[in-house]
Fold:
Amino acid sequence: MLENRAVIEHRTAYYAKRILPWMIALLLGMIGLGLLVTKVFDNVWPFTAEDNLNRWFADHRTGPFNAITYVGSLFGSTPVIVGLTAIIAFILLRTLHSWYEPLFLCATVSAQAIVFFFATLVIDRQRPMVKHLDNSPPTSSFPSGHTSAAVALYCGLAFVLAGLVHQTWQKWLCWALVLMPLFVAFSRLYRGMHHPSDVTASFLNGALCIALMSWAILRSEQRSSAL
Structure:
C-alpha cells in the first residue's frame, strides 16, 4: 500500500514538473496574444475587418443555418464536452487497458479550459455588436471556449485513434474528426458569439494543449524508467 502511494506521488510530481512550466508559458502567451489583438493591433487590418465579417454573417442568417449552427455550438458547449470526454475516456480505458490515452484526453481538455478561463479574466473584450443567437456567460469574447474545447477533444481523439489504426483509409477517417472544431468555430461566428480572432486564438490554444499533453503523457509511456 505504501509502495503504491509512493509510486503515485512520484508520478504526480513527475507530470507536474513536465506540465506546469509549459502551462504557465501557454497562459502567458495567450494573454499576451489577447492584449496584442485587443489593445495594440485593434485598429490594424485584418482586425479592423472583423466587425464587417460579423455583420455579414448576421445579415445572411437563415432558418436552416440557424438550426444547423445551433447543433455546432452545442457540440462545443461545456456540458457536451465534459460528458463526451468522460464517456470516451472510459471507453478508451476499458478497450486499451491503458491509462495513458484517457489521461491524455482528459488532461488536454482540462488544460485548454484552464488557459481559457484565466485568459478571459485578463482580456476584457466585448462580444460582436450583432444579435447573439446563444446565451453568453459573463466572460470575455477572447478566446472562444467552445472552439478551444472542441479542438482539444475532437482533434485530441483523432490523434489517439489515428495512432491505433494501420490502414490509410482508417487514419483518414480518424482525422475527419478535425472537421468538428471547424464546424463549432463557424457556428460561433455565424451566431454572433465571437470575433474571427477569438476562434483563431482558440485553435492555437487547443492545438498547443494537444502537443503539450502528447509530449508530457503519451511519450512518457516510452520513458518508463523515469517513473
In short: The radius of gyration is 19 Å. The mean pLDDT is 91. DSSP finds nine helices and no strands in the chain. The CA atoms of residues 72 and 184 lie 5 Å apart.
